[in-house]
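Chain A, query sequence.
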Amino acid sequence: MFTLTTKLGLFAAKEWKWIIGGVTIFFVGIIMMVVGLGSSTEEETGEFEVGELSADVLAYRSLIEAELKKYGMEEHTLVLLAILQQESGGGLSRDIFQASESLGLPPNSITDPLYSIQVGVKHFVGVFEKGKAKGVNIEGIVQSYNFGSAYIDFLSSKGGKHSEALAKEFSSLQMKRNPGQYTCGGDTNNFRYPYCYGDWSYTTKVFSYISTGGAIATGSQLGQKAYETLYNEVLKYEGFPYTWGGSTPATSFDCSGLTSWAFKNIGYSLPRTAQEQYEATKRISRDQMKPGDLIFFKTASYNAVTHVGIYVGNNKMFDANNGGIGFSELNNYWNPKIVGYGRVS
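Chain A, predicted structure.
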């Protein structure tokens, strides 16, 4: 039988667990903000198009990445951050991933954000592995985080490619199979009868937080997994200073040092300089460019090619320039300097 003292001890233990978790997250956030201070470039930069993901959400990045690493899936950190933004509304809460229901518990039963990360990541890994096994695309996998794994089976029978039309169809079927079990959310959740099982626009909302920065751009000639691995690798160095001759994280990077390092991480060997990389890659036109292709520039007189960046979609590249390492718009400054486009093969 529990005594009053035992109950008070259990209560105190739970509260201390929450406090310790909160303090951990607070200091992670402070460290990330300090690291980010002073990082600027000549061009507009920003990992997610500034304002897309909230500071509260970004503070969890290292914790989410560490949890994903346990499953060998850290390349999907950006997707999980976007899911977190959608689930939390950009603010802090205890069940930040709204993961209680994946355990069969009532909403918000989880009261520890660190545990919510563990459960949310595990739920994502589960639908990801099932989705890949059944030939379902990443958009369908993300929608399954909201709908549950039954959507994987449904989508697999429809060809494996997610669309809002198919999400609406699935939602409607679930309503018909379980009449009276689900209620519509009304205007506040943008739900409309009969599509009131889950949120059929969930995938669209999730990707809206990260796609503008090219984070989950699709159609790379490298393959999606390789491109995401490359992309996540260069993101680690956003805000680092430009270092002439730099070719490793220990020294920071110059433009071609960054590209050669990035492609080395996915099994490609690029020469060391921008000129050599231009000569070693396949020429393509601007219309043929896909995320993961290289863009070459002439910014000085000593070589025909003196600068290189990685195309990430949406008229942006990721590069190391005199202002530092980050995203650059292909704008009136960069466009006149373009020499050509190259594909690594």
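The chain is about 40% helix and 10% strand. The first helix runs from residue 4 to 36.
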